[in-house]
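1st attempt posting a full record on here, be nice pls
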Amino acid sequence: MEIGETYTAQSGRKYHVLERIATTDGAKIFTARSLNERGRPIRVVKNFRRHGGLGEFKLEREREILTYLNQINSGEDYPGVIKLLDYSEEELSLILEYARGGDLDDSIDYRGVGGFDLAKAVTIIKQLSGTLSRMFRNEGIVHRDLKPGNVLLSESVSRNLRGEEQGGSLEELAQAGGMKLCDFSLALKCDRDTGKYESEVHERKRPSCFIGTPLYCSPKIIRGERGDERSDVWALGVIAYELLVKGGAFNRNLPLEKLLGEINNFQFPKKIKRDLCGFERVMYAMMQKNPEDRITAEEIHYLASEFERRVLEFSPKTL
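the predicted structure (as tokens):
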């Protein structure tokens, strides 16, 4: 797929590729104009690299998960999740809604690691934990590659995080569809009746490689074990750390081997050099080395909501 090309997706709609906006290890991301829809809206095209079958696997996995989420919500947007609009097996691509505000990683780059005020950071954690909890509790889905780069923002949310007034609170803007998870190519489904994850047959279909993004992987994953909903909680803890603590939990610039060693040996500090009004206890519970000791996404959402109500409402200096 190249800039300037026009191709036909599975639905029969034509898309004209405009520009490349991102490149990852597994895909190239483009904007494209839908030529058959009213208003010729801008869409995002995720064009997977083939990589000896890995691209085909990721396309199939992400399409399956996003299609399922659309169907169970009667074709409406699933809260907190990017919407799949079309796909092309020939071009090995997904066509997704366009989030004009970039991603959370862009906002972290703008404000600096640890540069978010407490109120906004807690709102972000509450929104993300609510989405994770809903997906796992209701649909049995775990993401397995949660990171700031996979949290897409509307333009209004992005501007709010930069300190610009947008005619509503961050929570109102986020709940209106301004903060959505993307990239479900590593996601898994759990049978809610048995508590068991998808069959080993499905996992064996996936070519062997590292599961997830190392910086946000739990100790269990870097040991080569399968990630689950508790691994998503660990990743959310790493994100919270990046939002609130200078330097983050781990050094982004370390060589892979040293980074994995730091993760495996991580001990939550006894004292954080910033007054978080007690929210560090929630972060501590998210980043327990033993998965059995971690709190759930549902508990994080409840605690973040209570923290907002009981602490932040009476602490104007943190807003």
